[in-house]
Amino acid sequence: MKRYQEAKWTNAMALSLDYNYAMADFVGAEHGLGAEELEALTPRMQELDQDLKSRRQRGELAFYELPYRQETIAEVKKLSKPLLEWFWDFIVLGIGGSALGARALHQALCHPQYNLLALARRHHKPRLLVADNIDPDALYGMLDAVDLRRTVFNVISKSGSTAETLSQFLFVYGMLKGRLGVDKARERVVLTTDPEQGNLRRLAQSEGFRSLTIPPQVGGRFSILSTVGMFPAEMVGIDLDELLAGARFMDVRLKEGEFKHNLAYRLAALYYLFYTCKNRPIQVLMPYASTLTGVSEWFCQLWAESLGKKFDLQGQVVNVGPTPVRALGATDQHSQLQLYMEGPHDKLITFLEVENFQHLLTIPSLFPELEGLSYLGDHTLNDLIKAEKTATAFNLMRNGRPNLTIRIPEINAFTIGQLLFLFEVTTVCLGGLLGVDPLDQPGVEGGKHTTYGLMGRPGFEEYRQTLENAPAPQERYQII
Amino acid sequence: MKRYQEAKWTNAMALSLDYNYAMADFVGAEHGLGAEELEALTPRMQELDQDLKSRRQRGELAFYELPYRQETIAEVKKLSKPLLEWFWDFIVLGIGGSALGARALHQALCHPQYNLLALARRHHKPRLLVADNIDPDALYGMLDAVDLRRTVFNVISKSGSTAETLSQFLFVYGMLKGRLGVDKARERVVLTTDPEQGNLRRLAQSEGFRSLTIPPQVGGRFSILSTVGMFPAEMVGIDLDELLAGARFMDVRLKEGEFKHNLAYRLAALYYLFYTCKNRPIQVLMPYASTLTGVSEWFCQLWAESLGKKFDLQGQVVNVGPTPVRALGATDQHSQLQLYMEGPHDKLITFLEVENFQHLLTIPSLFPELEGLSYLGDHTLNDLIKAEKTATAFNLMRNGRPNLTIRIPEINAFTIGQLLFLFEVTTVCLGGLLGVDPLDQPGVEGGKHTTYGLMGRPGFEEYRQTLENAPAPQERYQII
Asked: Which residues of A touch B308 (CB under 8 A)?
């Protein structure tokens, strides 16, 4: 494997941005931005830049420092080593930010059918499964498909109080104890949680479970480069050094590069202007690479939970937030593209384009008598996917549909590290432009409290009562 | 397996709809519908009903008849039988409607980790993989993970001219020929295509490939209950009779039931009113069941491609179409819910709720000293997922966020048959209300032509020229 930390590789592996097709020069004045509109935002971006820098210095934006924490790698590698000698399956029990990071890294950076490969072809690393729901059939099915003696469970919850994850953990641990006894059960569990607080930390201390620490200031959706994402990644053989090196490379680029060439600020400015001035509430992320599906899912959480807010920082009701939608090229040209091309002018599309895939697949010249096939012969699938992306972006532009492209030289740990870090900074920056707090999620508390009430948790009786006292559903609004 | 075709099971397995939380009585007058608004749509729905019935009689809506085509089952079973004796892996080469149906059925109706099970535990049925992209790494990875001698490839393209699918086919067939010789290569290919026309039909005739027929009037996104979805389903052991019986049950219910209790018409009316009168352009489909993820993807294609249109039937520019978004409960409570709860009032959420899962998983009472865990003990995961869905719907409603629930008694072939058919009729019906043609997709032609031009297909030179003659991207709109 090439190591991109070496200086000679670094620039060749840098992400780039092309937003020509978002501009009025191309997409027309009605739907595109003028250069002066972007320019006019510069003073505000500079203020924001100062604000983010001072918040970073005060330690309020802890995710910024994760790429520099070599101790994460050390902690993760130390814990993984003995596990890698015995276990064939690795199951993450987590939800939201505790699940999406592991899945994104696994899909992007391992063999595309990693879990189907025989053990030797996985270099004796375990399969990775992510149990991120409480659907009883899905959980049972997952446990049913593995050998419990050879499976390690990574329970991830920063707070240690996530009902879904704790329920999964209790169920799994009960099953392990019953089948293997308490000692072997304990060996098969790793808790990733706060270093000091919460139920899982207390259990680690009192019951002697193996555990990893999440830096206290890092929230779930910004945790992919902490132990949360890094431990599963190490277990499946992803190069953690390269991943963090990529993130650091992006950080340095954003911090030290010329202000007007700041990728994150430019992206945030584009998203902000299309959302607020161009009335485009939907942000589509459409990689032309199947292996980036998990990265899109991760992005959608980061975006929705960070930016979808009722109140701004002054406490005014704003009910703000672009809706992220994930699509996949070229696949969704046969699904969502018709809508993007002809439907309402309410979307901005961001493509992720991969310059070089690992494999070059040449289409053979067969059946020359069939014109409808023969034109494909001697081209490569690599040409075809590139042509389709070019054609889609171009035709969208010609239909007045603004779009922009982030180019990724190739998919590897170094470029994915860059991409993840770029999206994190862009999100925080867009939060600043929209005037909301990108680090909280007050809107989901109500549902949690009602659930606690329904589950009989002491102290939450009133929430159950609120539900029970509410007007009953009416039969006339049902079809049975 | 219970057979739901028997009369005594049928009503217990019927889907139902609850739209209380979409109504002004619950969600408030600003965000909800009045009963009179729905009522006012009745004359229009009745006209539409007549129109759909006569179009159905004229054979213009061929998908309506698929549940009655016993010959589909016969054709599929006959072809499958010898294949099931030899093949361990089954790979669909298709895109859009040619891929989404197989995946939806497989995820919903097979073991949740079907592909990871050993052959005997799959009842000696093959694994099912769907190659629905031209990403070279994804395709190579898939071929690399199977034994080509034991793999059958199902090439699906109605027209026989889908560039992505033909390219995959040529690559795979070239590889098979090279490794196994032409006779064995031919045996490993099944073409599903038009009975008379197109490249694939001509190849079936001239080269002697096995083939299946798609009824000529059935378009890709309405083809799940044709050979397109049914052949892969048969290969993995799904009960085709039950699937079609479920669809027929829904058809009869929609045709013969009381007009005001027509599920599809009521759903279409709700979607129409929220889209046009309540200014909610985003339609979220959120099953509380991991196994319905594929059904959501299938729905998003059906919805986007059928309804996202530039012109109405009179040729007026309308640029219409709700944007479908798929979410997953309870998982996305930790991802998208914050946005749905507090963001802009631009969404209508449809929940799919499963009444009974196949497994009942009891959470054991462990660690009684930790209050934050102990309240979960002796509940079931089944209780928890139901409580979370109830809590989410209730809190959304209290925040002025309209939502409705389709209840599914349990997930089986009979209920999934109902659900698919219901969504198809609802889509056609909503197309009628919006005044667009739900069966065409003119917006994707431009991109196809440009791709053909870039790939050097004779007759498409002008499209390449248009691209090349267009103004070049400017450096000032790039960050490198």
From this structure: 338-343
Q: What is the ipTM of this complex?
A: 0.97
Q: What are the phi and psi torsion angles at B130 (to 5°)?
A: -120, 115
pLDDT at A1: 43
pLDDT at A2 over 60: no
User: Residue B372 is nearest to which of A145, A199, A442, comparing CB atoms?
Assistant: A199
A411 and A428 in contact (C-beta within 8 Å)? no
Distance CA A380, CA B427 (A): 37
| Per-residue pLDDT at B1 | 42
d(CA A283, CA A164): 29
How far is residue B108's CA from residue B114's CA, in Å, rounded to a whole number? 11
Known catalytic residue at B305: yes
Contact between chains at A384 and B455 (C-beta distance less than 8 A): yes
Percent of chain A whose pLDDT exceeds 70: 98
Is B338–A308 a contact, with Cβ atoms under 8 angstroms apart? yes
* Pick from A320, A309, A299: nearest CA to A444: A309
The answer to whether residue A448 is catalytic is: yes
Cα–Cα dist B153/B93, whole Å: 7
Element (H, E) at A267: helix A263-276
Q: Which of A305, A347, A389, A424 is catalytic?
A: A305
- Which one-letter amino acid corresponds to residue B457? R
Per-residue pLDDT at B259: 86
Which of B305, B347, B389, B424 is the catalytic position?
B305
Query: Chain A, 158-177: which have a CB under 8 Å from a chain B CB?
Result: 160-164, 166-168, 170-171, 173-174
* Domains parsed from chain A with CATH numbers: 7-40+242-434 (3.40.50.10490), 64-238 (3.40.50.10490)
Q: Which of B98, B72, B45, B15 is nearest to B428 (CA)?
A: B45
Q: Give φ, ψ of B283 to 5 degrees.
A: -110, 110
Percent of the residues in chain A that have a pLDDT greater than 90, as a whole number: 96
Q: Is the pLDDT of residue A156 over 50?
A: yes
> CA angle, corner A329, sides to A320 and A389, nearest 5?
105
